[in-house]
Amino acid sequence: xNTKWVYGFDEIEEAERYVGGDWDGVRGLLGGKGAxxxxxxxxxxxxxxxxxxxxxxxxxxxxxxxxxxxxxxEQVLQALKAIEAKSGKTFGSIENPxxxxxxxxxxxxxxxxxxxxxxxxxxxxxxxxxxERSGDPHFVYDSFRRLIQMFGSVVLxxxxxxxxxxxxxxxxQRGVSTDTDLTVEDLKEIVLKFKDLVRRYANIDFPAxxxxxxxxxxxxxxxxxxxxxxxxxRNAAHIAHDLGTGxxxxxMVFGNMGDDSATGVAMSRNATTGEDTLEGDFLINAxxxxxxxxxxxxxxxxxxxxxxxxxxxxxxxxxxxxENHYREMQDMEFTIEHGKLWLLQTRDGKRTAQAAVRIAVxxxxxxxxxxxxxxxxxxxxxxxxxxxPQFSGESKRGAELLAKxxxxxxxxxxxxxxxxADLAERWAKDEGRAVIMVRPETKPDDVHGMLAAxxxxxxxxxxxxxxxxxxxxxxxPAVVGASELEVDVAARTMTIDDQEVHEGDWVSIDGTxxxxxxxxxxxxxxNIQDPYLMRLLEWADEFRTLGVWANADYPADAExxxxxxxxxxxxxxxEHMFFEQERLPIVQRMITTKSTGEQREAVDALLPFQRADxxxxxxxxxxxxxxxxxxxxxxxxxxxxxxxxxxxxxxLKIRLSHAxxxxxxxxxxxxxxxxxxMLDRVEALREANPMLGTRGVRLGILMPALTxxxxxxxxxxxxxxxxxGIDVHPEVMIPLTSHVNELKxxxxxxxxxxxxxxxxxxxxxxxxxxxxxxxxxxxxxADEMAEYAEFLSFGTNxxxxxxxxxxxxxxxxxxxxxxxxxxILPSNPFATIDTGGVxxxxxxxxxxxxxxxxxxxxxxxxxxxxxxxxIAFCNTLGLNYVSCSPFRVPVARLxxxxxxxxxxxxx
Amino acid sequence: xNTKWVYGFDEIEEAERYVGGDWDGVRGLLGGKGAxxxxxxxxxxxxxxxxxxxxxxxxxxxxxxxxxxxxxxEQVLQALKAIEAKSGKTFGSIENPxxxxxxxxxxxxxxxxxxxxxxxxxxxxxxxxxxERSGDPHFVYDSFRRLIQMFGSVVLxxxxxxxxxxxxxxxxQRGVSTDTDLTVEDLKEIVLKFKDLVRRYANIDFPAxxxxxxxxxxxxxxxxxxxxxxxxxRNAAHIAHDLGTGxxxxxMVFGNMGDDSATGVAMSRNATTGEDTLEGDFLINAxxxxxxxxxxxxxxxxxxxxxxxxxxxxxxxxxxxxENHYREMQDMEFTIEHGKLWLLQTRDGKRTAQAAVRIAVxxxxxxxxxxxxxxxxxxxxxxxxxxxPQFSGESKRGAELLAKxxxxxxxxxxxxxxxxADLAERWAKDEGRAVIMVRPETKPDDVHGMLAAxxxxxxxxxxxxxxxxxxxxxxxPAVVGASELEVDVAARTMTIDDQEVHEGDWVSIDGTxxxxxxxxxxxxxxNIQDPYLMRLLEWADEFRTLGVWANADYPADAExxxxxxxxxxxxxxxEHMFFEQERLPIVQRMITTKSTGEQREAVDALLPFQRADxxxxxxxxxxxxxxxxxxxxxxxxxxxxxxxxxxxxxxLKIRLSHAxxxxxxxxxxxxxxxxxxMLDRVEALREANPMLGTRGVRLGILMPALTxxxxxxxxxxxxxxxxxGIDVHPEVMIPLTSHVNELKxxxxxxxxxxxxxxxxxxxxxxxxxxxxxxxxxxxxxADEMAEYAEFLSFGTNxxxxxxxxxxxxxxxxxxxxxxxxxxILPSNPFATIDTGGVxxxxxxxxxxxxxxxxxxxxxxxxxxxxxxxxIAFCNTLGLNYVSCSPFRVPVARLxxxxxxxxxxxxx
Lengths: 907, 907
What we know:
The structure is a homodimer of 907-residue chains.
Chain A: E1 6-8, H1 12-19, H2 23-42, E2 50-53, H3 55-63, H4 72-87, E3 90-91, E4 97-98, E5 100-106, E6 117-120, H5 124-134, H6 137-155, H7 161-174, H8 184-202, H9 210-224, H10 228-237, E7 245-251, E8 262-267, E9 279-284, H11 288-293, E10 299-300, H12 302-307, H13 309-326, E11 330-337, E12 340-348, H14 353-365, H15 371-377, H16 380-385, E13 390-391, E14 400-404, E15 406-409, E16 412-418, H17 421-430, E17 435-439, H18 447-452, E18 455-458, H19 466-474, E19 478-480, E20 486-488, E21 493-496, E22 499-502, E23 506-510, E24 515-518, E25 523-524, H20 531-543, E26 547-551, H21 555-563, E27 569-573, H22 575-578, H23 584-592, H24 596-620, E28 625-629, H25 642-658, H26 662-685, H27 697-702, H28 704-723, E29 729-734, H29 740-761, E30 768-773, H30 776-780, H31 782-788, E31 791-794, H32 796-804, H33 808-812, H34 815-821, H35 838-852, E32 857-860, H36 868-877, E33 881-884, H37 889-903
Parallel strand pairs in A: 3-4, 16-17, 17-18, 18-19, 26-27, 26-33, 27-28, 28-29, 29-30, 30-31, 31-32, 32-33
Antiparallel strand pairs in A: 1-2, 2-7, 5-6, 5-7, 8-9, 8-11, 9-10, 11-12, 13-25, 14-24, 15-19, 16-23, 20-21, 21-22, 23-24
């Protein structure tokens, strides 16, 4: 059978049959652009006639050593004849000459492929004929010089600079600023000069034969498939090299043929708000380039209604038809030539997050798309947008960018710089100032300042540094690890190169992009209560099978989480309660005393605080499960830093050596003694690798009194709220387990204490006991763990650290950056679960634990719980829920629904 | 069928039939002691007649609520009748009374079980009869008071103190020092007083009825099975609680019946040297207790030959018979009563390491046992004994124990204390003094002192601390983590409680036990060239399937390893070469410079050093593989410590603030500047968790010039020695890989550089490329790794750290101690591979990598490679080799043979 290498736009059905009726196959055969032009033609949208040379022709051409295969060229000529018949014009004729454009068009749009050549078919004789018909020599000569220039650069590979230089010289000579203001004579001379350039740089005469022009353009498209830029792009984007590109040859139409001509672009709906009205711009008597270039003010599409009412109606009808056909909002290019409307292109339109949501919901309401489709058309990032203030697009224009760091907690924040937590709090609370708190890095005792600030900025630390975790937890915009910034807390300055920013200066940070700007940028506050979003998330809840819980330590967090749709608390970190100002001294006493009695007293003193905290959480989460994790961090985190202490001590000693006043000496001596004692204790608790040290369950085993106190607080609180009529579901979670015996031991302590409290209170509280899975050994032995654990929760931050042997804080500001930029790792495993390693352990843990206890509740409470890709993976594993920060709950609801839809078995 | 509860010693065959012919079953039924007495009886060894009440009777008694089951007691009485018939004596008779002993005897010997009651059958009437017959009232009354005392304490649970008090009072009154010197009258009174004590403490009369005595003793044995001490012991030793204990009732014989009576103990071979001659002690006219008590000087067994030649011959024959029967050296107790020899007990004899080896080899030579048996009879620890000086048993007697620490590197060392590496080296090298180097902990720049010292002592650090690793590597005895010691380097004192030990004082440390003594203790040096050991290890090589390689960084280590039988180098740590004094400044320059050129120069300057090191290793290992690991530790390890620097800097600043002399100020300022610069660099390289930081392959990827230099050094060295006629097999190993892309990248660098060197040199070197598996992710993705790796080597130290999430240095002096003492972990996972977690990863790695590359070479080079239990596990996994420190090579050879024998499929 003779291969069909060329399809007219009106032969789309034949192409469809050839590939077996599959739209993806049609795009593969004709390229995306060719398929779309054919599709528009099929549904009766007016498209300038044309045809597509197939990708198969391209592949055959390249395989044959750059020779057209078989009768390909004859098929092209035949297709050209068909266009001539349709348009009544003749290619190369001096009577009524046909001009065409030639464009590449692969299955996927791809930079590096050959661009457009317009006006093919012009030569010295043809232009005379056209000038005669149009009476517009300026337009015609300009069209010709464009053809030579485009042909020269695009087909013959001549750099654009010599052409532009010629034009610049003429503009200078004439004292004009645009090419439009050059005279016809100028353009005539330019055409000659351009032909010279072609001769000089490409060693050939510019081909006067229109067929030769078309043939060379076609070959150039084919060859560009194997160009270096295209190959590199395909390698990077993982696109196969054997797809080939199509070539689209199409009749030229002109919007600049007088006042009955026009050109424009339009969206089928409002791309900013999503409202269902045409939106766009056009110009009477102009070319497409003019609309984009902005040298003439454009008109809104609505005015076309009065200028050309019939055309407007036709366009509106076509827009509706295209939207219905593609079942998506369309972004269209059109040209009106002598009162005749032509569509040149249509594609899915880009839109804001708000518009995406509204369009998806409204299209579902009108029955155009299904709920499933609506859910997959909004990206989780677009939901996230609703949760944080944003800089308007305009506000960044001209703003002074100081630095870029890691975008760890999204949203925009504007405020004055404060270098300490205390100052941040004072300014914010007492003076009502908006504050950006800046630190080299943050520590637990900075939290009060972070809470008071609008946003957080650090010069070191990674995606899961303390600053990042706290910021995400509280929905504070944050940029961390902005290493270009030199933050000098003592001097109260932040230096970037030579520029100094001082305490009190205004800065704006964009946690969505990681940018840091000088000054006050304008912000917009989207609305999470957006009714369209609310409906979309309700649909998400219908489809998703994964539960969405939240990580929350305080009742206020829990309230927000519930408002955003959380179905439980997956992680309450009890130690956060220990850091609060009135409690920290008690905690420090507990740690530093050598007397068991005093330690016991300190532990007991913490009980009422913890009980009240838990009672508050339980009240908010009435009817829903609350997972409380027992104390996790190493004890030294509650004490002053070693370096701070040694520096202070050194300073004190210097002062002491200079002191002359006896009273001063006495005071200094006391201070030295106190600090030395503290230093001793801090030293004793120091660890070479605290991440792998005495923390988590190890603390609980070394200090069973602490476990008992926490369990007592949980159960006393549970009894208290039960009496108030609250439905309480506590789940007690042991962190950092690596061996089943740890769990067994802690369970014994828990059961004894829980039983004791319940007997004292005369109440029976249903509860669950479980553990984090955040150490490889815990995952590997999850079947053993399941003997004692009624639930498991993946702590994927730590699990990633230990599975990779990577300290996240060190790595994310260190070698991990190189690893990602050099593509040694495909993605940051602390942002998205490493399915090949960490994920394998998770899968083993799920399978092993369920083999022992089929109804075991398995969830995830690491940072990954809010990451859409990771959520999809959790859905594959069949977890019961993901738990993330309250601000990620809506995102997770959508991502979970998308995962469920994507992974649903085909009907 | 009527249950048989009681077996006469002469009914062993019936017992054997009952349990199905299985010796283990016989021991289960009769207990170890009963089975042995029956066995001796069967083979014709003269054993005083007796019988065993079965363990089943014990279980039935306990289940029935402490009631004898069925006709058990009737069977006992019948068995007693049988003894009476054999001995011609009658139990409880006043004519010719039979006395018996009653002993417990479970399957496994077990502390906490009821001890022996002797002389059962005595009462007021019976003793009169015996006195009449023997004419020795002193002996008889003494026997009687012993019965009452033993019965009181053992059967009735009365504390021994009141009995001893009575005896003490009499001795005092009589002014004598031993009970033997009390008069018959005294003993008569004591018997009465003892009976009073029984009445007072147990509220019963001492039973005069011999049958009642026997019944109560039997019940006491049964009950003791469930006593707290026995239960605790069984829990700890993992012995089942349902085994029960047997009761052995046996005719009393007396070695103190005159000069034709005697008693003694003897070994069938010399327990110290292993020589094949009887060894033992005896006493004429004495009781067993007297031999042990040492209040009369014993005679060597050889003198029995002249004293009682016929008996000696008989005994010698019996000893040979027993050895042949049990196929093991025997430890025997015997009594001669009126010229008649009786064997009371036989069991396998304890022996020294040397004796164990010689006996095993000689028994094989005479055909008594097979080579396999010989190999399993010597423990790997016994081989280790040959490799290190030891304290003689006597030397520790009376020595002053200062402290106990971790026994991390075996052997004895004696020397004077030195608190710094420099001093240790100076004293050892310049003054020829034996030195024990003591530090709070050691660092890489202490190594020259450690090498010069006889032994190493630290107050902190764990089983895999720097001190422990280096010590084991070089076979230096070491005790680390002796936390009772307060080591004050500045004051040059080591304090324990109130005792101060100063620099230069003599101390002795035992790395085999972890003990630290004051003063100079005597040491013995065993001989590794022991001909018996050599033969045993040759046999080991015949049986083992695992290769035994060694970890060695220097040619001297490699030589030792080869001498000890290593078949390759499994790990050469190239960074150890970087720490040497002349090289360290170059390394520091490489790290601290900001100029790429200067860095390149420093790297190049290291090349000749490394090349020479590798060439040396290759020469020693002619014909065998050498695995060279590229640089592993984080760079800051090569720089001065952060704290040291900050302290120095603080001191300098204080001195500066006091300085008045201008020149001094200038000098101090320069120093401050230099140290500040170094501090900046050290600070930049600091990591929160260096174990999980920028080290291993991560360094190689960040500094490819370093990788290239190391590869060049390896291949230039390989070419150099090839020209000398050496057969070289280099294998290049990448450390700390977690993702296959790291390996892929490093392999590219390696191949390019190796190719370049081989082309320059015009030689082709066969080599292998591979990686450590020391990160969980590497194990999980070993199939991917196997695409690029031709060998894998488990770094189980790090793999254990990351799999457990435990920092070994912190943990081994911290919570791990509690975890082990509280049995949360069954054993230290850094000493023996945790098969349940780490081992699971290893197994996955082996299976996955072999699925991709069936001939991949897989070994282990972590500390576990020298641990017998871990070696057995590696054998199960089917590894190709284990690699350990040279000093563990002989141990590993034996352990590997034992593993192969134990795991060999049954015929």
